[in-house]
Amino acid sequence: MTSDKRSRLITCIIPKGNGLQTLEKLKSELGLLRAHVHLARGTASNAPKALHGLVEHAEKETLEVITDYADADAIFAFLFESLHISEPYNGIMYMQPLGRSTGYELSELPGTADPV
Amino acid sequence: MKYNEIAVLTDIALITCIVQRGKADDIVRAAQAAGASGATVHFARGSGIRERLGILGVAVEVEKEVISILASTDHVDHIFEVMHKAAQLDTPGMGLMYVTPVEKAATHIPPEVLERLRGKK
User: Strand runs (DSSP E) across chain A, as ranges?
Assistant: First the structure.
């Protein structure tokens, strides 16, 4: 088992809808496989308020990506631009150090050119 | 986009709170009253508590809600304490909470705020 003690975890909390296509982009453009998406609900203090002053809960997607230390900043910038994080109401992203992480290898399936 | 063009936030920490399903909204409300600017909640399933509590374990919901809140390091202790009280985490089976460091964060920063921060440097 190989494990990297200097990996980083990049987490993006984004509006629902872009998670899966970003996963595909990470794989096709950067060759990254250590990523997943799950659903969540979120609320923010600057979110539009409903009629009775209650903060609106919105469906979110949480995209988590494990990267090597050397590539972390570049992948952070890639996701920042791909997900348009700088625009209002487009979410937030952050990076955390990881104690340990493993690689994720996929074997070639017979008869397929590009393993999923 | 080059990394050095992104305005990143530092001195941030992540509070993660795992509670029984249905309790998250009240805790999030308390955290926001304490100064948290936002929260994300997702579902999870827990294990272990029922095995330990035996017949009393039926009172503990296996389905969980996981609350994630980013906070500045100046405010994280206060928000943590408020959430601890709101979630009654000193009661067995009510859940757990922890803080992890965040190296950097990025989000939309209004232009006027960005200019003010740049002017301070």
Answer: 3-4, 8-15, 35-44, 58-67, 92-97, 101-102
**Cβ contact, residue pair A92, B70, below 8 Å:** yes
From chain A, the residues in CB contact with B68 under 8 A are 13, 40
B40 shares contact with chain A (CB less than 8 Å):
yes
Collect all residues from A whose CB is shorter than 8 A from any CB in B.
8, 13, 38-47, 55, 60, 62, 73-74, 76-77, 80-81, 85-97
CB A55 within 8 A of CB A49: yes
pLDDT tens, residue by residue, B3-56:
456 888 899 999 999 999 999 999 999 999 999 988 999 999 887 666 676 777
Task: Give residue B37's Cα distance to chain centre.
Answer: 10
Q: Tell me the pLDDT tens digit for each residue of A83-111.
A: 999 998 899 999 999 988 888 877 777 77
**Closest Cβ opposite residue B3 in set A38, A60, A76:** A76
Q: Which class is B10-120 in CATH?
A: alpha beta
Q: Which amino acid is at B105?
A: A
Where do we find the tokens 């009510």?
B94
Residues B38, A87: C-beta atoms closer than 8 Å: no
- How much is the ipTM here? 0.82
Residue A30 burial by Cβ neighbours in a 10 Å radius (0-12, 13-18, 19+): middle
Listed by start position, the domains of chain B span 10-120
pTM of the model: 0.84
